[in-house]
Amino acid sequence: MDFRPFPLIAAIGSLTSCSPAPVDGRFDNTGELIALSGGDAGPQAACHTCHGLDGGGDGALVPRIAGIDAGYLVRQLGFYADGQRRHPQMTWLASRLDEVDRLAVSTFYAGMPIPDTERVNDADICTFGDAATIYHNGIPDRDLASCASCHGEEGEGVGAGNPSLVGQSAAYTAEQLRRWRTGERFGDPLKVMHDAAGKLRDNEISPLAGYIAYGPGRSHRPGFLVECP
Questions:
Q1: pTM for this one?
Q2: 181 and 160 within one domain
Q3: Is position 39 within any domain?
Q4: For 164-212, what is each residue's pLDDT tens digit?
Q5: Tens digit of pLDDT for each residue in 122-139?
Q6: Domain range for 195
């Protein structure tokens, strides 16, 4: 019998023809790797360590980012990277993510559902004073537009550039309003937030932030027309 050596090239070809095509990992597509591991910035920069696995924040000064528009989140990361928003950890993290990474992780969080928040009693709404009126009607005497005109009657956000406020803590919202007032936070192209926060009085900020956290909306907050004693 005539035995002939099997060509090496043919053998290699037969092996490579059976190899599966490369498959993109779900982490690469969704930005989940960056959110859970910090990507090139390292584990100390993992988003979930502060914002939670559900993206809901810590209920205090770390905001809810789940369900926020991806374009808005990308823009805020850019602000942190170039110094328009200042926060030691966020500035450090954002500066180590390139534009592709920022978009990937922002898209990941944008696709997450907004976590449910706790319900408050109707009586608790009374502690917010005139905040409901300010939120829904503004203060015409001060030329202050209503918060609802940009952020929605239920805090759902109006358009991609105006983030939803549902699920944000009162502490975080109050802190951001104060930063807008003092100019520590900027980047709003029309200066709407800077001007609006500047027209608020000191004693109106905390009640307004509390109402935003617990007023009407998806988080089962009671109606703003509750009659207080």
A1: 0.78
A2: yes
A3: yes
A4: 998 898 899 999 999 999 989 988 878 999 999 999 999 999 999 988 8
A5: 445 556 778 989 999 999
A6: 122-214
Helix (H, G, I), strand (E, B) or coil at 20: coil
Count up the domains in the chain and report the number: 2
The one-letter amino acid at 183: G
Domain annotation covers residue 18: no
- Token reading at 112: 């997450």
For residue 160, is it within any domain?
yes
**Sign of the alpha-carbon dihedral angle for 16, 20, 21, 24:** negative
Give 144's strand partners. 139
Phi, psi of 218 (to 5 degrees): -65, -25
Tokens standing for residue 185: 């936070």
Quick one: which of 143, 134, 159, 141 has its CA closest to 212? 134
Average confidence (pLDDT) over 98-106: 92
How far apart are the C-alpha atoms of 208 and 206, rounded to whole Å? Answer: 5
For residues 193 and 202, what is the distance between their CA atoms, to the nearest angstrom? 16
Q: What pLDDT, on the 0 to 100 scale, is given for residue 126?
A: 59
Q: Are 131 and 210 in contact (CB under 8 A)?
A: yes
Pseudo-torsion of CA 207, 144, 188, 177, nearest 10°? -20
Single out the residue of 51, 7, 46 nearest to residue 27, CA to CA: 46
CA–CA gap between residue 139 and residue 135 (Å, rounded): 9
CATH of the domain at 56: 1.10.760.10
